[in-house]
Fold this protein.
Amino acid sequence: MAACKGFQLLLGFVGSMFLIMLTFYRWDMSQEKKERIHQLQELRKQLLRETCDGDKEAFKHSLEDTSDKELENLIVDDKHGIIYCYIPKVACTNWKRVMFALNKTEPYPEPISISKDLVHMPNTFTLLNSFPRPEMKAKLKHYTKFLYVRDPLVRLISAYRDKFQRHNQYFYENFARDILRLYGNQPDPPQTVDEAFASGVHASFHNFIQYLLDPQTEEKQPFEPHWRQMHRLCHPCLIQYDFVGHQETLQEDAEQLLKILMLEGDIRFPPSYENMTSPAFVLDWFSRVPLEDRRKLYKLYEGDFRLFGYTTPAELLDG
């Protein structure tokens, strides 16, 4: 009996020691992860500073040289002192949901419960360009500013799939019909997206790239935001961002950002189900785009590659 009791005491002691060690292990791993994310943030911001300082001509550096129209992607939350620059096709629906929820009373609604159509409606958010210039400068100086970026070519693929491979009358009428006329050998394309889908007519990915590369495209108007260069939407050489998130590390970055904003216990970033893409996926999409056009496209988006630390896609550019 005594031996059995002794064994039970020993087992309890071993179990307690195991739990203590497990707790310390988890704490150590958590600290290591936190430090790794912090170092990654510092590297991302350092790269921005060095790239901006090294090229005064390619990127905007002054608010005075920037029109109000060019600041239309900056959402302001005065309640929490936050400015978020949203980039279409880079988790912007979910971050807009978060920003929308933060403007409600506590406890905040679950962001995932908020309609994606609602957060993309005009006048849903307060934008930086709605303030006088002195207020803009004060908010940019004192508020916590963040943005999320993505591999530039993967973002283009995502934009093409979303706007041209789905039934979207607005993008068909305003972009796809012209693309088909100019580059798709379709002098008289169908009038509606339904007619186009029914007849099997669609702008190819290469047609889309031809449209982007045509100098006349931007002579008419700036690129549509879904394929406009990220630095032209968020001006990272003009605005000193406190946090630079990447789509490729979306959930990890979101968790860290909410901690920085001291909101981690108040709101949850919605889980992301979008598949992360592989190099083979990108190669497959560009396999029908001529080498010369791939190289021109890289030059068109080179600023985003340089500023945000994305590797030059040698497998696409070397033939």
In short: The longest strand covers residues 144-149. Residues 162 and 168 are 9 Å apart (CA to CA). The two ends are 79 Å apart (CA to CA).
